[in-house]
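Schema walk-through. Below, the input block comes first and the output block second. Nothing else is stored per chain. Lengths vary across the set, and this one has 400 residues.
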Amino acid sequence: MTDPDTEAPAYPIGRECPYRPSPRNDALRARGPLAKVTLYDGREAWLVTGFAQARQLLADPRVSIDPHRDGFPFVSPDMAGLEDTGYTDALIGVDPPVHTRQRAMLISSFSARRMKTLRPVLQAIVDERIDAMIAAGPGADLVSAFSVPVPSMAICVLMGVPYEDREAFEKPARALFDPDAAHAEQAMADMTAYFDDVVGAKLRRPGDGLLDDLIAEQVRHGRLTRAELVQYAMLMLIAGQDTTANVISLGIMALLEHPEQFAALRDDPGLAAGAVEEIMRYVSLIEAISRVAVEDIDIAGVRIRAGEGVLIGAAAANFTTDLVTRPEELDVRREPRHHLGFGHGVHQCIGQNLARLELELVFREIPRRLPGLRLAVPAAQVRTSVTGPLERVESLPVTW
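--- output ---
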């Protein structure tokens, strides 16, 4: 049972290894599945490290995802600044029933059946990027040569956005998380203008893609405004590209640091689909998922009061024996299907089928076609950064 009066340590906890959560989470978990932590602005919030409690609260309608509510826990200044840009005003920052309506418009575009039709296209993207690396190598920065282009090209194909326009959205997408509010607001303005132009062009001349489907099925029937579609487009592109790119980089780095696991995928490509689940669990890209209580909640011997911030420690929860035995080990032969890498509950990642397919192809083809792949620098020299709750790999030098 957690003692609410125990001193609340600083949060977030920096990673000692970029591709796995800090073992210092264990000390917090030893206090109980919920513990108070102190955020950068001096406010306290509940950190949930227990697996069962994390899943329970992610599915509890008494916690809100709305960052405009008093008490919402921001883990960094850049995340607090993002609230003012309007980026969270669609899907990822709204509660039911608004969220329910928005998600219903998009869900069919990310169905398993839709992904099946995309598989040959995504296979061709992965093959082309590996071909380019081999032609230019040996030696490459995996981030710029592979990890970023693959999901960026994939989401552009799905949405019907020209990949050639990537300079118009990739740089502003990164600047959205700049702690300088003026830079973040300018990035939002730049991306809004770009996607408004894209939507305008599609209204005049329909094409083939998710945005075109939404225009035909929702906008033209008055169920979705042009401004809302622009917001959806920005959200899907950023979420669909940035997170997957970093899972690829962190996952490959983890596999290369565990050569027996890389060899298992090399020798048996059929392990790739299941390995995606284990890699998502192990790298746990998102440290914590922010929520705020809207009612009092009694859980695990403590009372979360209305207005208190709640951080669902997805990374910490993924490293509990309630999910897998020997959680500290990377084992591509197991499939922890209930991990929190894609979240849980009504806000579970809408693009998880797309991400799973991309990652399956990546973790099958990289070991198969580059069996001698290895880090070109010591792991300690790999450049990483943290943006809000997201672990990023800036550069990953590899050779073969």
